[in-house]
Specification:
- Helices cover 78% and strands 0% of the residues.
- By secondary structure, the chain is mostly helical.
- The protein contains 14 helices and no strands.
- The protein has one domain.
- Helix 6 crosses helix 8 and helix 13 crosses helix 14.
Length: 346
């Protein structure tokens, strides 16, 4: 079957989300009539903010491209955002999000090394900054009122993995000479091999060298863009969380200062969870994140509403986009499928 893995991931994400939601509903015996207490205008505002996330995220891609001396159109950036959301949320630990985004950018004319730097830089630095904010709020006592050990460990371990992944390319870019020397040695050794596995290995090593060179250029020549890039990450996550914050403030009338910390921790845990889109994990930590200041019933409504306006909405939009590509450009999807099978580690 041509796209079996993609559909299996999608079905697993949907099934896990449904099963975990049913489990939480049965466990809490929630009164579903409480959903009607949320003003329709609040729901509409949350939905608009959920769509605005696409525009804000597109701006992040644009800024990284500008820092490298390139320029991406809004259309290309939106395609990259849709691909990243869809493949991130339906795969464990978002393993295919970045490769899918790299593919979309290269198909749009961006050089491979630049597409890798733009994609990984945006994703890894963005999450790292958000986790830094999360740790800061938790340290200052603005996180959940009753922080459970499992929740804290999830964020700490997940955050540690992201930091470790981010450190290595930064070390290589800051001091690339040893890596360049090693790559030159491998290139010399592989000259006598011209086909099969070694052909692709040489292409990979060349892409790695070009990527480190591009990252080095970003660090030393794109310095004036660092402040706009950091601000774009902050604005993006504010918009992302705002979809849930407005629901919480509209339903229970609690203050922004009371709900901002718990919402940040809930979002961070969902991002670093090993399951697709945090499904199962997110539903299991609702009470740990939001009770207090919210009642258990209201916490469940807000958390599910928040995930609906972000993870589930983004998956639905991505699914529609993917199906349209299958209908209109099946060859492109087949090429993407082959690419993702060989680039899972990008």
């Amino acid at each position: 079957m041509k796209f079996a893995s993609t559909w299996i991931y999608l079905i697993f994400f949907i099934a896990l989300s449904i099963v975990s939601t049913i489990w939480v509903l049965n466990k809490t015996s929630i009164d579903l009539s409480l959903f009607r207490q949320i003003d329709f205008k609040i729901i509409g505002l949350s939905f608009i903010l959920g769509l605005a996330v696409y525009v804000v995220d597109s701006f992040r891609y644009y800024l990284y491209a500008r820092a490298l001396g390139d320029s991406l159109s809004l259309r290309i950036c939106l395609r990259a955002v849709i691909a990243n959301f869809f493949f991130s949320w339906i795969t464990p630990a978002a393993i295919l999000g970045m490769p899918a985004t790299v593919f979309v950018l290269t198909k749009s004319g961006v050089k491979l090394d630049r597409a890798i730097v733009i994609t990984t830089g945006k994703s890894l630095l963005g999450v790292a900054l958000f986790l830094l904010l999360t740790f800061s709020l938790m340290t200052l006592g603005y996180g959940p009122k009753q922080m459970e050990g499992g929740l804290a460990n999830l964020i700490l371990w997940g955050g540690g993995i992201y930091v470790a992944i981010l450190i290595f390319p930064l070390m290589w870019a800051i001091h690339p000479a040893p890596l360049y020397k090693l790559l030159a040695h491998w290139d010399e050794e592989l000259k006598k091999f011209e086909s099969g596995f070694f052909y692709y290995l040489k292409k990979f090593l060349k892409a790695l060298k070009d990527t480190i060179s591009t990252l080095e250029a970003l660090l030393y020549q794109g310095g004036r863009w660092i402040i706009p890039i950091i601000l774009s990450h902050i604005i993006y996550y504010l918009f992302f969380m705002a979809t849930g914050l407005v629901l919480a403030m509209g339903l229970q009338g609690i203050s922004l200062s009371d709900i901002f910390g718990p919402m940040t921790v809930f979002t961070a845990a969902s991002l670093v969870a090993p399951t697709p889109g945090g499904a199962g994990v997110a539903e299991a930590i609702i009470n740990a994140c939001f009770v207090p200041p919210m009642t258990p019933d209201n916490a469940l409504i807000i958390a599910l509403g928040y995930r609906t306006m972000t993870f589930y909405l983004q998956t639905l939009i991505g699914l529609i986009w993917f199906i349209l590509i299958i209908i209109r450009k099946r060859s492109t999807v087949e090429e993407m499928h082959r690419y993702l099978k060989t680039r899972r580690g990008v």
